[in-house]
Amino acid sequence: MFGTVFNDISVERTKADGSRDQIFKVPISYGPKEKYLARVDSRNIGDVDYSVGMSLPRMSFEITSMTYDAIRKLQKTKRHKEHLEDQTGATHVITGYTPVPYNFDVELNVMVKNSDDGAQILEQIMPFFSPEFHVTMTESKALGIKRDIPIIMNSITTSDTYEGDMITRRALIHTLTFSIMGFVYGPTQNIGLIREVDVNVGAQMPDPQQSDLNIDIKPNPEDANPEDDFGFTTTVTDL
């Protein structure tokens, strides 16, 4: 979810007369910045021989920490329910307990080789965070839960590797830190759907042979789903 927020960022290069020369999207992938900086500085990494070094600009992101958020804690015993229909047409009830609130700290690294590219990228990110940006995501496909998740920008820092030797390529790095206020869901259960209640009533209960009445309750219509408008048919039989 986080990476897709930044997957449509582009950089434009201009000619001396100010006209557009080229425009290209900035690639983004998951991983620490050190991994990609190594690719920038070297063509040979381990057993892999790269014909060319990795080009800049590019972006990378990674989750740096996860902390429990007690402020957003909800009632533990509350259940979420979703009604699903399988290939045979049978309706199932999927249920799960209230999710646990967690804050996910994410680091986004913008790696460029000149300040103009970095400024263009930051100009496409910063105006949307004031300081939060909301993204609608499907938190639980099984339970059909969608939620607006706030992504909060915490800080922006910049580092430059211009002090290296003459061989090392320069990399200007803008590091943006974010906090995602999300939830963690536990396992779900298929509890089935109750379509009939059959009760025996008698003075000598619980002996079923001494029942006086049988009460049978079914939905009307019998093939109604939980979200439909339906009633109940109650049948009372003397035994």
Automatic annotation (TrEMBL):
Residues 219-239 are annotated as: Disordered. Pfam families: T4-gp15_tss (PF16724). InterPro entries: T4-gp15_tss, T4-gp15_tss_sf. This is Tail sheath stabilizer and completion protein. It comes from marine metagenome.
